[in-house]
C-alpha cells in the first residue's frame, strides 16, 4: 500500500515526482466525460515507465482469443476498448534538448486533480542536464459540456536563461494496447492533413471499421500576447504535427493552447468525420480556453449538486468519497444507451473496458439515486438490446431456448474465455433480472415492464428452467456445475446464491406476468404471443420455485454456500498467517480452490439483494459465519459487507469494510492501481455510505432511511433523487434533517416513521 497523495476535500494532490508512482498516478489522475477518457500521461515526451491511454467510449477491437486449450463454446475474441490517438502530445525542446522528466531533475512537482471543477493540472521546475531551469505549468480537461472536446494550456517559463523553446503539438495514431493478445497494432491510417497551427488525423480499426478523427488547433502566447509563428509541418504514418520555435527571455512565459476534437464513426457518418471534427473544433476555439474551462466548472458544479456527499470530521473519507463520485461521473453519463461501465472505466486497459455484472449489481443504484431515471433506464435498455445475442449465446451452449447474458461483453456477444466462468458463472443472468426489479422498485416506472422488462425476464427464466435438473429420488431440483460470485470455488453443485437468484427470477417473472395481465391486458397478450410463452412453461417455473433444493447447515441454521462447503478445513482468515495474504498472489490456484476462503460476498450477496425476504437473525447468523472466511480479494466485496454490517448494528465492522473500499485506489490498497482504477467498485463505496450508513431502502414506493454517523465522522450528508424529488439528508449525532430541494413532495420513512416532505420543505428528527 502506498500513501503518497495529499489529503484535501476537493482535490487529489501529488507533491514531488517519484517515477515509481507515476503509473499509479496516471490512473488516479485520469480525466473523462463518458465519451472519452484519458490517463494522466504527460504531454511532453517521457521515456520512463508509463501506460499510455486515450480511450474513445465504444470504440473497441475484437482481439482474437488466446487460450492454451480451446473448449467448444469459447468466444472467438475478447473485445477491448482501444488505446486511441494520442491527442495530448506536446513535445518541448530547449535549445535542442528534449524535455523528458526521466532525464532531468524535477523540482517542486505538483499534480492536482481538481474534482470540483473537473480539470487536471501540473506544475514543476525542470533542471536540464546543462543546468537550464524551466518552469512548466499545464492544465487540461475533457469537456463534459462538449463531449468531443479536450483542451490543454501548456506554459513554459525559462527561469535562468534566455533561449529558444521549440514546441511540437501533435496527433499520434501510431499507438498500441499493452494487452494486445498477439502484440499487434490495431489501427490503420485513413487520412491526415497538417497546416499552420492545425492538423487532422483519421485512423480506423483493422477490424469492425471504427473510424476516429482527431483535429487539433493550437496557438502560442508570450506574456499574454498571441504570436504569429511559422511552423514546420511534420507528417508521417498515422502522425501529424507542427514544430514551432519561440525565443523567450528569462522570466517570459510562453503558453501553448491546444484544442482537440475527437469524433468517431459511432456518432458521425464515415464521409463526414473530418468535417464534423473541424466544426466541433472551431466552435471550441471560438469560445476560447478560459470560457471552456469555466463552462466545465459550471457543469461540474451542477453534477455535484446532484451527487455530492459531505463528510465532516474526516478529510481522508471526504476526499475518497468525492473521488469515487467524480470517477463514476467521468465514466458514464448515461446519454448513450450503447455505452456501459467497464470495471476500470477509462483509466486503464484491464478488463478491456467491457461490461460485467458489476453494472447491474453495483453501479445501477448510484445512477438511480444521483441522476435522472432516464440514465439508469438506458443501462437497462443496453441489455434489452443485447437480448437476441444472449439468446444466441444460450443456443451456442446447447440450450434450446432462453437467454444467457455474457460474463463480459461489448456488443452482446460473450468475450470471456475461462470455462469455469464463461459457462459456469451464470449467476450474472440473475443480476440482470434483479436490476429490472431494482429500477422499477426505485423509480416506479412500471411501464418499463411491458415495454422491455418482461421479455428479458422471460428469456432468463427459460434459461434457468433448463439449467436446473429434477432429481426424482429427491423430488427436488438441483443446479450442478456452477461458479458463484465467489470465484475461489469452481464447478460446485448447488451454489445457494445461484439457486436462489434463479428461483427469484422465475418468481419475479411470474409476478410481472400477473401484473401485466391485470394492468396492461393488451400488451400482455401481445407479449405472450411475441414470446410464444406456453402455460406449461410458467407451470414449470412454479414447480421449480416450489421444489428447488437449497443447501443448508441445520446445526448452525445457515444457508450453505454450496453442497461441499462444510467438508473444507474451517480455518478463519484471522487464524491464517498474514504472510499468505493476499491469497491470489501467494497461493497456487489449486490451493485457493480447495480452501474455505471466500473472495467476495456470495451467500451474503443474496441476503443483500433479497434483503426484504430475510429477517435480521438470519442475516446475522450467515454474516457471522461467512465474513470471517472472506478475504475480500475482489474490490466488489467490502461494500456488500459494509452495508449488511450497518443493518446488523456492527458499526465498527461496517466502518472497517467501508475504509477498504473508499480509498482503494487513492492508497493503492491492492497494489494494482497502475492497471487502472476500480471504477465499478466505486459505486459500491457510494452504496456503503448511502445504503449502509444512510440505511436507504425503497419499499412499496416509499424511500426508507435509517442513518447513523460512523467512525470518526462528526456528521455527513448525501443527496438522493427519488421519483422526481431531490432530497438532501444531513445526519449528525443529534439529529437527522431531510431537506426536499425540489417542488415535488416526497413520501419517506425516517427511522421507521412515515413523513411527507412538501416541496422545498424539510423534516427534522432527533436521534
Ligand atoms: C470479480 C467479478 C467481477 C470482475 C470485474 C472479478 O475479480 O470476481 O465479480 O465481475 O472482477 O470487476
Automatic annotation (TrEMBL):
One of its GO terms (biological process) is carbohydrate metabolic process. The active site is at 487 (proton donor). Residues 13-266 form the Glycoside hydrolase family 65 N-terminal domain. Substrate binds at residues 357-358, 599-600. GO terms for molecular function: carbohydrate binding; glycosyltransferase activity; hydrolase activity, hydrolyzing O-glycosyl compounds. Gene3D superfamilies: 1.50.10.10, Glycoside hydrolase, family 65, N-terminal domain (2.70.98.40), Maltose phosphorylase, domain 3 (2.60.420.10). Residues 322-687 form the Glycoside hydrolase family 65 central catalytic domain. Residues 696-756 form the Glycoside hydrolase family 65 C-terminal domain. Belongs to the glycosyl hydrolase 65 family. This is Maltose phosphorylase. It comes from Paenibacillus uliginis N3/975.
